[in-house]
Give the backbone structure.
Amino acid sequence: MPELPEVQTVVNSLQGIKNHTIRDFTYNWEKVIYNMPPSRVKHLLENKKIIDITRKGKYIIINLDNYFLVCHLRMTGYLYTRKYLNKNKKHLRCYFTLNKHKYLIYEDIRKFGGFYIYNNLNILNKRIGIDPFDVNFTSTWLSKGLKSRKRIIKNLFLDQSFICGLGNIYIDEILWYSNIKPTKISNRITSRKIKNLHTNILKVLTTSIKFHGTTIMNFKFDNMKTGNYKNNLEVYGRDNMPCSKCNSLIIKKKVAGRSTHFCKKCQN
DNA sequence: ACGAATGTTGCGGG
DNA sequence: ACCCGCAACATTCG
């Protein structure tokens, strides 16, 4: 569920804990920290100050001075801060007790998400590709990237080591705006279309951030708020409904093992 | 009622 | 290089 706009929405909603200090860590699910046993975390992060909260791709990065607390929400993770803690929440997986009587709380229905704790961001930066809001993400960069590969465009965009932050929903939307069919091979997309594609990536993501992302089923931020970009969706979830450009019906079929929505007439 | 599908990622294998 | 299938897990949909 959470793709770049949703993750950015969460990051924005967490800015209030900047300059707070971690006092304690409590967990009730053993695998909530991907890269170490959670029993070590309390000692490691105690009294660490939150310098800032940023994002790369779909990763939330909490800078703790000499440590980085990195969170990935996967499908159903909720990360939020509250003044009070409800320990009875069914899907509460862990929480950080901060000073000033605040909590940083992590819930996750499906238990796919969780945290990494790193000394630096080398591993993360090596694993994931360019973020669409990175200044180096230009249409020239995109053009080189697409033309040097022969990959189905939907697969390529799902590959976070190429571009990070796009997922199933926004890829379908972006390709529709760009008149590119999801199965198009990357090196056969014309330069003119690539230029337009680059613009549409930024446009769709920026607009969605303005609407606090898309809530289809599970996405929530700041404990219970939902995103409103859903009303702007042109193809995702609109199979058998008319394309707003040409009126023919939106198709849904599996591409890259994922449900993919597109207009047969507009996208080629 | 039960199998399929759900937005993600990382892995092994072809 | 690249793609596929699957696993991690809980809930909802048809």
